[in-house]
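=== RUN LOG ===
request id: a7f3
mode: sequence -> structure
chains: 1
length: 330
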Amino acid sequence: MEQSDLRLDASKFRAESVPQVTKDYNDEIRKATLSNPKWWEVGAQKYRQMRLNGETPLPKPVELNGTPFEIPSRDAGRKIPCRIMKPENGEFKHIIMHIHGGGWVLMSEKAYDPLLKTYADGASALVISIGYRLAPEDPFPAGPDDCRDAADWLADHAEKELGAPLRYITGDSAGGHLTLIAYLHLAQTHPSFPLNGLVLIYGCFDLTKLPTGFHYSDSLILTPEIYDNYIKVICPGLSTSQLKSPHISPLYARLEGMKLPPALFVCGTADMLADDTAFMAVKWQMAGAETLVKFYPGAPHGFLSFPPEKMPAAGEAKEVILGFFNGRAK
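=== RESULT ===
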């Protein structure tokens, strides 16, 4: 039989591949999700505070010794709040730009300290997390513009102002989407910029939803109902065809002819955005770029934030991400 030009390890998607500890923890997450109020029922501001208090299905954010920083925006007199995390020994050789998740509505640059610390120590990097504007207070294109501005500033000024060059951009969930939005902008404004790679963690690349998003019937963290309510406030009044604009849904960007950096795509098989990872990764590979895709059996949306003793995929994925950073460090 002829070998397929496109290969995927289908065993990752079989129920028997899911570790029992993951199944047990997923049951805990389902119970917490079903008993928790929805963010649009209580309002974005209150739900943000609930996240900070650990009153949602995601673990309570832990604040470490990050340093506040600001990057100029395109708007006169307004700056973009950021958070810097350095390695414990203070030595770093490059910069990782990080964009947080939260459905373009929740979370902030202050909510990811342990992950930023993991990246900083494990990749000898200065990590800078971008505090982009959130909906519903600031719908699109406010948040994406902040990420574009941050990428431009870091490309131009990071080495002089922060002591090392920008070499990686990464983000999870909404941050995965914004990572690609920021990179595609940077490719236009700085076409010869030597970026080492992108790490795209359970990102959303078609805001109109792909098949796994339409058919998803589980209650693990991100559901079609939760997702649809995000879209209503981040892109109010936009039609389906408008949402498919490459400036909003990067899956529709024309990649042919671009000199794309290597990309690592990470997602769980129990995530309604699994197709986003699969489709975008194939497009990246079709455009001639080096592409690494890692699917984790039974892992839900947001799994990188869960304790590895209950969600083994969290620890495994972090090791892969650090390997990607270190393997491409120059």
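=== NOTES ===
The mean pLDDT is 96.
DSSP finds eleven helices and eight strands in the chain.
=== END ===
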